[in-house]
Here is the input.
Amino acid sequence: MSDSLTRKQFLGRAAKGGAMVAVPGLLAACGSSIKGAGHRHGSTAPVQRKLAKTLNFDNWPLYIDVGKNHSHPSLNQFTHQTGVKVNYVEDINDNEEFFGKIQGPLSHGQGVGADLIVMTDDSGFPARMIELGWLQKIYKPAIPNIKNLVPKQRHPAWDPNRDYSLPWQTGMTGIGYDPHKVGYELDSVEKLLTDPKLKGKITLLSDLPGTMTLIMGANGDDPANVTKASWNRAIKRLEKANNSGQIRQFTGNDYASLLANGDIYAAFAWSGDLVQLAADHPNLTWKLPTTGGEIWTDNMLIPLGGNVYTASTYMNFVYEPKIAAEIEAYVNYICPVLGADKVLLKSSPSIAKNPLIFPTAKEYDNTVEFDVRAANNPSYKNQFQNIVGA
Here is the structure.
């Protein structure tokens, strides 16, 4: 989809950073910490093995395949295969906003008019919703294709056995840059933050998990298990780089136009954006830092009131490599389904061979999921926001 906006570009993924803002109703409901054992609180109602007439699916804009007359071929195939019509609504513009929309009904044990929703893991909201009992378990007997989930995504800390979620699409946070401007291969956060040649010519993200994952990795700390000491080291390093003028500004997706225009030389950047940018600006590239990058995932979730069997049947459908490939050919984020690349080798080899869409095992191993407890820590969020000025 090189001629259209990606989901992130459309939203100006500052919204992803915006999801870090405290939501009073949420924090009051369950405090400021997320316990790894909190998954026992999730809803586990009995499942009736009967398909509904309609699947109500709420997703982000520009996040599924599009055919003639703005139709969605994959959804049409699902209807043809199962008889289930799909009411597909693109009404999720950021995690916090959407959570604010659904928390009222869910807090009273009511449905939200959706069988399936998509939310981002590093926002902390999916983990919170499991703790609060606002999500239903997926029905794995209806999802034999779950075997096609890429190994990297099988055991996230917030949902260790994928009892409540399956990835829709994934992205990585690393370094986007112009090699002609920088003059060398830039895969070092240390160089990005200290090279005098780059002073005032770099941007970092206003997204807490993305920025802090990269800095903590450069410090030799583990972003998946944030401690007070590791947080303090990272926040001090961020503050020092900002005060020195090394960092031009903190951005959402607006780094994309700055990179394309040559106004900056490098940026903390999302992999999906660089797939699109490189189509029109082949001088730009993206690298995972040698010290590691972030991996984040937008997940399919079944809220209270949703039809578990119908939603799980759809999950199984999109985890068929052929269907996943059709969606991927339009979306261009990281595909979570094994075998989709082999399908695309015949129809779209450039997509199949793109490591930003189908990362190698080595690249996957060099990414980490940010600690959602830290992402929801009010003190950490305040410190971070005080520096980025958001």
